[in-house]
Amino acid sequence: MKRFYLFIFSLFAIGAQAQSLTDGLLMPKGSFCTGLLYTHDQWKNYWEGGLKRDNQNIGTITTQTVTWMGNYGVTDRLNIIAMVPYVKTQSSTGTLHGLEGLQDLSVSAKYRFFAKDFEKSGLRFFAVGTASTPLTNYVIDFLPLSIGLGSTNFTTRLTGNYHLESGWYINASSGYTMRSNVNLDRPAYYSDGQLYSTNEVKMYNTFDFSTMVGYYKNGIQAEAFYSQQNTLGGGDIRRQDMPFVSNRMNFSKAGALLMYYLPKPKNLAVRASFSYVVDGRNVGQATTFMGGLLYTIHFSNKNETIVPKP
């Protein structure tokens, strides 16, 4: 049971950002938010195609990640966000040994291209572009204990946010990810009923959608979210076989997020989230917890309390 599970971790890691790629917030000009986020992802049951099952040869798979993130406000309308995760995997039973190491560097530009304020509400639209690529030559052919899939990706995203003066908001975001082919450390492979005499594997692009309802005011953010992802191609895991890197990997998950800027010390925030995969195809039914600390520096006025803004 190997390949697709770390892919699931990678998806969850995206949601661990502060002022994330899918929300309606931006850091003000000259502000830099940085910190470390810890993610604990665990599953036992998974979907083999449409069949839900477990595997006693590997038991429960646990992925732990510490992610450094940084978000800089270039202007009040443009943020640059970077992330670097360090990943460690392990299984509860069997003979497979876990792996660990640096995964992928991702850099994103988030731009607010439309803003309209009404008497007691506001409407915002954001465009996001994200590029990611592996930082190390890690093994991709050993999932669920690999630490990544090894492809170089580019994602375009559109996000809309409608918020009320009282602090309540609704958010919707959709993204399309283009993925490069990957190379295996073997001369041939079998996938989707066909033998390929090459080590190059075509990686199919993905489409995702998420919606959030929440409250954000006075440095407090509370949110409930639902998201889906579909892989635009790929076959199912064969019965009693290991998954393959290019399998179709679809899922739906729900969760909640909480972030709070502490009164003291200034500009220090605590962030936590929870998510659970409610349905899927060729993915694990994972439960994911995230927690971390984030600190914001404003280079023009270090005494000012800084919080992200719509």
Structure explained in plain terms:
- This protein is mainly β.
- 4% of the residues lie in helices and 56% in strands.
- Strands 1-4-5-7-8-9-10-15-16-17-18-19 form a twelve-stranded antiparallel barrel.
- It has a single domain (4-298), classed as Beta Barrel (Porin), CATH 2.40.160.
- A hairpin with a 2-residue loop joins strand 15 and strand 16.
- The longest helix is centred in the first third of the chain and has 11 residues, at 4-14.
- The protein has one helix and 19 strands.
Quaternary organisation of the protein chains: single chain
The CATH homologous superfamily is called monomeric porin ompg
Q: Write down the overall geometry.
A: elongated
Question: What gap, in angstroms, lies between the N and C termini?
Answer: 43 Å
> Pairing-aware structural class of the strands and helices?
mainly beta
Helix content: under 10%
Feature tags:
twelve-stranded antiparallel beta barrel; mainly beta; two-stranded antiparallel sheet; single chain; Porin; 1 helix; 4% helix; 310 residues
